Amino acid sequence: MSTMSTNFVINASNLTLSYSDEDIIKDASFSVKKGEFVFITGPSGSGKSTLLKSFYGQLKPKSGTVVVGGLDMSDITEGKLQELRTHLGIIFQDYKLINEWTVKKNAVLPLMIAGYSVDVQNTQAERLLKHVRLSEYKDRYPLELSGGEQQRVGVARALAKNPFLILADEPTGNLDEYSSNVIWELMENACQQLEATVLVVTHKIPSMFSHRYRHFIIEHKGVYEVH
Amino acid sequence: MKFIRNHLAFIFPMMAILLGVEFFLVFDRTTNSYEKGLKEGYSMFVVTKKPFKVEEFKTLNKHISESLEIDKDRLASQISDGMSQSNAREILKELPYFYNLKLDGYLKSSALEGIKEDLMSSKDIKKVETFGNSYSDSYRLFTFIKFILNVFIIFMSLISLFLIIKQMEIWRYAHKERMQIMKVFGAPLMLRSGVLFRVALIDAIISSFLTSGAFLLLKYKLASDNHIEILTQKQNLLFQSSDFLILIVTSILIVLVSVSLVVFGNEE
Ligand SMILES: Nc1ncnc2c1ncn2[C@@H]1O[C@H](COP(=O)(O)OP(=O)(O)O)[C@@H](O)[C@H]1O
Ligand SMILES: [Mg+2]
User: Fold this and answer.
1) Average pLDDT of the residues in A50-69
2) Pairing of strands B44-48, B125-129
3) What pLDDT, on the 0 to 100 scale, is given for residue B230?
4) Is B171 in the same domain as B209?
5) Does residue B158 share a domain with residue B32?
6) Is the pLDDT of residue A62 over 70?
7) Which residue has the higher pLDDT, A215 or A211?
8) Which residue of A has its CA nearest to B186?
9) Per-residue pLDDT for A1 more than 70?
10) Is the domain of B119 the same as that of B214?
């Protein structure tokens, strides 16, 4: 919509977010450029998930604006929002897999939503599960996998439709160090090889990444750039 | 076990509605044939001064479909017994003409009175007997039973529809998580609620088959085994193949309405 949209994947100005009277985020202004890898940290309950929700349209701004992929989230229509979401890759701390579905089916949910044929879904499932090194588990159900393996399914699903923006909410929050490192590798790869913009909310930035990428912190309802 | 209970909680009320629909169809057909019987058995008695053709009656009132002249010869021969030929001929000429009139449908007694008035407006018609009382008694009983049955069917259907929607709510709750996940990834409402439509449609079709099966059993087995004459005589009225189509269509409509109510009603 605006000329800025070519440079910025996310552009927030004076963004205020709240669920009720009390503001969670207040007057925050920041932007994320195309192809960047960005960390957001902050204490528990500071509003990290809330901020992320405003990026995928789960929460409308109370005031100010946030533009994602050229779309103003304040007055986006239901149809446009659905369209936008099919170009995002969202990863949750608790994986949010559909437990009645096989690993394979979960991984290609975005392709199913986009209406691709079962053939395409199957070949893409092979590719995605190979990428996250879960090929031999394709016919298992999520609850038959370890946490780290479930999250790799979550990453596969997020990557399924080549998203321009990946939003990850504490993706390693429930994982041990080894599993976490696998996830971090996949995230970095998504940014460097797949050219997606990656925005990760996390408690603690892994040591292998320290100071290599931009880092925002949420404090006293504001969003500040650390470096 | 829980799975079966869940489905029965949908199938039973659905069957209750379908049984109601089928009862309505059967009753409608039976009453139609009974109505036809009443109509055919009924006739109006008319006395006229001159001979009437059926067309002449029809111009007086269009509901008259047939006229039957009552043969006077036997009456005449009794009267003329022991009279001279010429006297008898004289009397016979003075005798009025008697007709039984048939109507084209089953009418209320007030409508019968209307026909009587129309007929009496002709100066050549001396007397009309409608036999209105016995006729309207059976008519009233008949419409009353029909009315009670319809009220009962509607009442039962409403309660069943309520139960169906309740069960839908339970299913929606069971699939809430999945529907939310799909929503985050941009799935449109129809795709998200597809699972509800699928489950409900399968159960609706099962219900239609069970209901049809129950009536077919009644038609071909129970009715003849128990020698229920009314049922065996009018066997064809009990369940017709077109009924199956009606049941399927009804159940699918109910599914569409109830799923839509639950899904659209709960969109945040
Ligand atoms: N759906 C909600 N309704 C109302 N308040 C909420 C909701 N989700 C989160 N909150 C509140 O908003 C604040 C920030 O929550 P959240 O963004 O989840 O924090 P974080 O992800 O940083 O731990 C918390 O005080 C939390 O209680
Ligand atoms: Mg959180």
Assistant:
1) 95
2) antiparallel
3) 61
4) yes
5) yes
6) yes
7) A215
8) A82
9) no
10) no
Per-residue pLDDT, B234:
67
Q: Comparing A9-23, A183-197, B94-108, B173-187, which segment has the lowest mean pLDDT? A: B94-108
CATH of residue B72's domain is 3.30.70
B216 shares a domain with B146: yes
CA distance A103 to A145: 9
B237 and B165 in a single domain? The answer is: yes
A20 Cα nearest atom in ligand 1: 4
Would you state the structure tokens that stand for residue A67, as one six-digit string? 């533009």
Query: Rounded to whole angstroms, how far apart are CA atoms B210 and B216?
Result: 10
Shared domain for B30 and B67, answered yes or no, is no
Closest residue by CA, ligand 1 atom 14: A47
- Kindly state the tokens that stand for B225: 């085994």
| A31 CA to centre of own chain | 16
Task: Pinpoint the alpha helices (H) of chain A.
Answer: 48-55, 78-85, 103-107, 109-113, 118-131, 147-159, 177-192
Last residue of a domain, one of B130, B158, B178: B130
Contacts of B177 in chain A (CB under 8 A): 98
Token look-up 């006739």 returns B43
Q: Mean pLDDT check: name the lowest of A149-163, A177-191, B116-130.
A: B116-130
For residues B211 and B115, membership in a common domain is answered with no
Distance from A121 to chain B by nearest Cα, in Å? 16
Which of B130, B158, B193 is the endpoint of a domain?
B130
Interface of B with A in 179-238 (CB under 8 A): 181-182, 184-188, 191
Question: Which sequence spans correspond to the domains of chain A?
Answer: 99-162
- Torsion angles phi and psi, residue A224, rounded to 5: -120, 145
C-alpha–C-alpha distance, residues A218 and A28, integer Å: 10
Residue B135 has what pLDDT?
Answer: 64
How many domains does the structure of chain B reveal?
A: 2
Mean model confidence pLDDT for chain B: 83
Shared domain check, B158 and B88: no
Read off the pLDDT of residues B119-176 as tens digits, 9 standing for 90 and up.
Answer: 888 888 888 887 766 666 777 777 788 889 889 999 999 999 999 999 888 888 888 8
Query: What is chain A's percent helix, strand, coil content, to nearest 5?
Result: 35, 25, 40
Per-residue pLDDT at B49:
87
Is any Cβ of chain A less than 8 angstroms from the Cβ of B3? no
Interface contact B188-A90, CB threshold 8 A: no
CB A86 to CB B178 under 8 A? no
Pocket test of ligand 1: the residue of A15, A17, A19 to mutate, having most ligand atoms within 8 Å of its CB, is A19
pLDDT of amino acid A4: 46
pTM score:
0.73
Q: Which domain holds residue B60?
A: 43-130
